Structure formats: C-alpha cells, structure tokens
Amino acid sequence: MTRGRFISLEGGEGVGKSTQAKALAAALRARGHAVVETREPGGSEGAEAIRRLLLEGSADRWTAGAEALLFAAARADHVAKTIRPALDAGSWVVTDRFLDSSLAYQGGAGGISIAQLRALHEVGSAGLLPDRTLLLALPAAEAARRAEARDRGGSDRIGGRDAAYHARVADGFATLAAAEPERFRVIDALGEADAVTARLIATLDDL
Ligand SMILES: Nc1ncnc2c1ncn2[C@@H]1O[C@H](COP(=O)(O)OP(=O)(O)O)[C@@H](O)[C@H]1O
Ligand SMILES: Cc1cn([C@H]2C[C@H](O)[C@@H](COP(=O)(O)OP(=O)(O)O)O2)c(=O)[nH]c1=O
Fold it and tell me: Are 187 and 134 in contact (CB under 8 A)?
C-alpha cells in the first residue's frame, strides 16, 4: 500500500484553519481518498489530556520551557497513535496545526530557540514533517475580528496573549515559509471559505 500524504494547516488564531481543515478533508474524500482529520494540541487520547493542561488555567501556569516540552510530548503521542498509523494505512492526514506552530509560538514569539524545538521534535516524533504545509495568511485585524466573533472574549491561555506576541507569531510563520518553499505554500485566506478551499486544493496537485 502506498503511504498516505500528510498535510498541515498553519497560521495564527482566527485565520480559518479549523474551517478549512474540514473543507479540505471533505474535498479530498470527494476525490476518493481516505482522510483522517485531526488537530493539535490533541488528536489522540494522551495529547487531548495534555491539551487541557496547556490551554486551561492561569497565564503563568508553565514556564516557557515546560510549555515547549508539553507541546512536544502531546505531538509525540499524536504522531505515534494517530498520524503514523493513518499514513501507514494509506490515508491522507489533514491536521489543524503541527510542529510549525511550536516553532512560531514557543520559538519566534516565546523565545525558545528553533534548534532546541527541532531537537525536541526529533526525540518525540523522529522529526516527522508534513509533505505540505498550508499557511493561511490574513491581515491581523481581520483574523482578530473573526476570532473575537467566534470566542466572544473567552480566549484560551495562549490565544489570550497580547497583540505583540501574536505579531511575532505571524512573523515567525512567514520566516518559516520563506525558508522552506518546497514544503510550504502561503494561501490568501481573505474572501469566502469556498474560494479559500479552492486555493488550498490547487496547491496539492503535485501530491
Ligand atoms: N473565509 C471566511 N470568511 C469569514 N469568516 C470565516 C471564514 N473562515 C472561517 N470564518 C469564521 O471565522 C472564525 C474563525 O475561523 P476558524 O476556522 O475557527 O479559525 P482558526 O481555526 O484558524 O482559529 C469562525 O467563526 C469561522 O466560522
Ligand atoms: C500546536 C500548538 C498550538 N499552540 C497554541 C496556538 C493556539 O493559541 C492554541 C491552540 O488553540 P487552537 O484550538 O488551535 O486555537 P485557534 O483555533 O484559535 O487557532 O495553542 C502553540 O502555542 N504551540 C503549538 O505547538
């Protein structure tokens, strides 16, 4: 059996990742592929338990280092229990966030070095990378408007960090995409959801 393809959706809060993960999975199924749709932090029983530790509680609950380790631990479980088995069975995997979120949030915005974060990923997940990473790009004001309309002020431990933190996250994603043009595609996330989905699908032709 040929191995499935591994696709990650990335970007800051409110850019449309969850919406597009669903739509992309549906579009791939309509083309006859088996698709596993998943998310981070989470996507397996152990990782969902770690998700609650990461997203609930006070802002200062974890040091920056502990936070990075918890994301890497959650990812290791997600890869071992959900992602690798699905790929080995020939399914496509569409995940809402993966390693690049750690590089942008805990790295670019949080101050942990990219080299250290990649080392944690090597230990936890044998360095598994997506075949393609789709970075949804939206002006910060529009992303904040969408996130606010969805969350009505009730954001989580990390989503609730200040605008300067989220600006560093956006810069971090842009830098990662520029450094790995083979793996990344930057997608304009403005406009109707269906139009954005069509843009995403068009970047997967070669896979
Ligand atoms: N293309 C779009 N245009 C307008 N609103 C959108 C679009 N895509 C998603 N939304 C809405 O914006 C909010 C954030 O989208 P969501 O998919 O949850 O983003 P993310 O997972 O990146 O945080 C949701 O309320 C969603 O319904
Ligand atoms: C996967 C991952 C997520 N995060 C953050 C990003 C989000 O603020 C939060 C996950 O929330 P998520 O449910 O993806 O939120 P949103 O729909 O707003 O994007 O965790 C990291 O900081 N590092 C990571 O490695």
Answer: yes
Q: Name the residue ranges covered by the structural domains of the chain.
A: 6-202
**Continuous H helices in the chain:** 17-30, 45-55, 64-78, 84-88, 99-102, 114-125, 140-151, 163-179, 193-202
Q: Which atom of ligand 2 is nearest to the CA of 98?
A: 1
Pocket of ligand 1 (CB under 6 A): 11, 13-19, 146-147, 149-150, 192-193, 196
Is 58 known to sit in a ligand binding site?
no
**Global ipTM:** 0.97
- Return the CATH superfamily for domain 6-202: P-loop containing nucleotide triphosphate hydrolases (3.40.50.300)
Distance in Å, CA 12 to ligand 2 centroid: 8
Nearest CA to ligand 2 atom 22: 105
pLDDT in tens, 127-184: 999 999 999 999 999 998 998 898 887 778 998 899 999 999 999 999 999 999 999 9
